[in-house]
Design goal:
Blueprint: H1 7-23, H2 28-39, H3 43-47, H4 53-69, H5 74-80, H6 86-102, H7 104-119
Helix pairs in contact: 2-4, 2-7, 4-6, 5-6, 6-7
């Protein structure tokens, strides 16, 4: 038979897995900051009500990345953007998901911003 593993070992291993993940969870602020840098727009513009094409897309990218990289709920993400409704956040996430599949440029943008966010933790 294989080696037996006691409950303490399993508990420790599970705790370590979660601890490691928690160390690398960026905040919504850091993700928003990196999206703003990438698109060269102000933090207030990204979080606010501006509807220019660039601002809207940057905001949707930020919502998508916050959902992917943090444990925040749709409602909590909406709060980061002047209390937008969770359905708005869902729409943004769906839109960017579809774009990344159909548009290599969008996939590259997501990858670049992701790299920049992760670089802040190295």
């Amino acid at each position: 038979m294989g080696a037996s593993i006691d409950a303490d070992t399993v508990t420790r291993a599970v705790r370590d897995m979660f601890k490691d993940k928690a160390e690398f969870l960026p905040s919504a602020d850091i993700i928003i900051d990196e999206v703003c840098k990438f698109y060269n727009i102000e933090n207030e513009a990204l979080r606010g009500q501006g509807r220019t094409k660039d601002t809207s897309q940057a905001r949707q990218v930020a919502m998508y990345m916050i959902r992917r990289m943090t444990n925040l709920s749709l409602k909590e993400i909406g709060r980061e953007f002047e209390n937008r409704d969770h359905s708005t956040v869902m729409h943004s996430i769906d839109r960017i998901e579809k774009l990344t599949k159909s548009n290599p440029e969008m996939a590259e943008i997501i990858k670049d911003i992701n790299t920049n966010v992760n670089a802040r933790y190295e």
